[in-house]
Write a structure and sequence with these properties.
The complex is a heterodimer.
Chain A (H helix, E strand, L loop, with lengths): L27 E11 L3 E14 L2 E14 L13 E17 L2 E12 L2 E14 L4 E16 L2 E22 L2 E14 L7 E5 L6 E5 L5 E15 L3 E12 L4 E13 L3 E12 L28 E14 L2 E14 L7 E14 L1
Antiparallel strand pairs in A: 1-2, 1-18, 2-3, 3-4, 4-5, 5-6, 6-7, 7-8, 8-9, 9-12, 10-11, 12-13, 13-14, 14-15, 15-16, 16-17, 17-18
Chain B lengths: L1 H14 L24 H14 L17
The chains are: A mainly beta, B mainly alpha.
Chain lengths: 361, 70
């Protein structure tokens, strides 16, 4: 069974370790537990760990993560029976950072992800430099990725995809209380994008029956995303942030995202925060709610609801407490997903809980 | 797509013309709540959920520049 957890034509699993700090960060180790549960009978328990050490001008960071899935959901693609199934994905990442001179860093990273029918190998390089008395930070990351999918019950099936991306970020101090960020992300993926377990139903002409056809998407997908964020200290205890992101690709899918955050310092070295996010997208040009009747389907066809028009909304409450060298973070959130043109199961509601502990030296 | 890239580049260049904040003026900028991301593990987990639930992604992570505080 292939999980959609490592899906995506251009999925990018962001790891904090992929940030190349312009100066050596403190040594730290952290552990996180994330639980996701939705009303589509999907539960994902995700423990993860992160560690980083730096000495002189060399640093190493390591990440490991597991997704343990229990589901009876249409979004968990399976060739087995529609009864509840369990599956596990394991991911490991390694990064090496060097600081060739003050206020500049170079990081090389590698990541592997494995499920029994889907593997990902990725490498990336990030360069960071601070300029203008550290008022400006520029970062450039290049990434290459190889995805390989197989199918349970079909030993002859192999779907491969190669991809690459370039991410440019700029951070600028605006005044004594305000920081602005700009990120531009360009990606290209070439190969197989679908799922061997997902089929498109086509109603045969003059027949009461349906036939199942495999998905067929364009081999190449080019995408561009840009985001702007502003963070501002308000008064002595509040911090506010707002961001907006736009996305477009050559599958004619467009999306817009807006996020607002507020954080307040409390007594006893604690902090409380709230994050609210809204997302809206139109559908890919070849998305159809229902395939046209006929003996054969359109050349491009998909049953992936995430490629159709959709909207999502998320609210998350976060609490943080520092105890000496330890930092405890707890968050609980609600997520709503609305697939606006889906023929069935057009809404999904989820609850997420996250616990994280970090020790820094 | 080309127009969006040109606009983003122009905006990045415009940011470099902002007021220069001196090191002794960065007290509030040094607040941990001003870091991006403030809670890295949480943002990783949230972004992972979104990437598999939505049809688009990107423009996150990487730089995450801080306050340049000494």
């Amino acid at each position: 069974m292939r999980l959609q957890l490592s899906r995506g034509a251009l999925a990018l699993v962001v790891a904090a370790a992929s940030v190349a700090h312009a100066e050596p960060p403190p040594d730290e180790v952290s552990g996180t537990l994330r639980v996701y549960a939705d009303d589509d009978h999907l539960t994902v328990v995700s423990p993860s760990a992160h560690g980083q050490v730096a000495a002189a001008r060399l640093g190493v960071d390591v990440d490991v993560a597991v997704d343990a899935v229990s589901a009876a959901s249409v979004d968990v693609m399976t060739s087995a029976s529609p009864r509840a199934v369990t599956e596990r994905r394991v991911e490991a990442g390694l990064g090496v950072t060097t600081w060739p001179r003050d206020r500049a860093a170079l990081r090389l990273g590698a990541l592997v992800s494995h499920e029994h029918d889907y593997d990902v190998v990725r490498g990336d390089a990030t360069a960071t430099v601070e300029l203008a008395q550290r008022n400006t930070t520029l970062a450039l990351r290049g990434q290459l990725e190889l995805d390989r999918a197989t199918a349970v019950g079909d030993p002859m099936f192999v779907g491969e995809r190669r991809g690459g991306g370039l991410l440019v970020t700029a951070t600028q101090l605006i005044d004594r209380r305000t920081i602005a960020d700009l990120a531009v992300d360009a990606r290209l993926a070439d190969g197989w994008h679908g799922s061997p377990y997902r089929t498109v139903l086509v109603h045969a002409l003059d027949q009461p029956t349906f036939t199942r056809w495999p998905e067929a998407t364009p081999a190449v997908r080019r995408a561009l995303a840009a985001a702007v964020r502003v963070r501002r200290a308000i008064g002595e205890r509040w911090v506010g942030a707002a961001s907006a992101r736009g996305y477009l690709d050559d599958w004619d899918l467009h999306s817009a995202t807006a996020t607002v955050e507020a954080r307040r310092a409390l007594a006893g070295d604690a902090r409380l925060g709230v994050v609210a996010r809204g997302y809206l997208q139109d559908g890919a040009s070849f998305w159809r709610r229902r395939q046209p009747d006929g003996a054969t389907p359109p050349a491009l066809r998909t049953a992936d609801r995430t490629l159709g028009p959709m909207a999502s909304a998320q609210v998350e409450l976060v609490g943080e407490r520092r105890l000496g060298a330890a930092r405890l973070v707890a968050a609980v959130g609600g997520l709503g997903l609305w697939y606006l043109d889906a023929a069935a199961q057009s809404r999904r509601l989820a609850i997420t809980t996250t616990l994280s502990v970090t020790w820094a030296r | 797509m080309r127009r969006a890239a040109i606009l983003a580049t122009a905006l990045a260049l415009a940011l470099t013309g902002c007021v220069r904040v001196r090191p002794h003026q960065r007290q509030r900028l040094a607040d941990p709540a001003m870091a991006a991301p403030t809670w890295p593990a949480l943002e990783r987990a949230d972004e992972h959920t979104r990437e598999v639930s939505e049809g688009s992604g990107g423009a996150t992570g990487a730089g995450g520049g801080g306050c340049g505080c000494n």
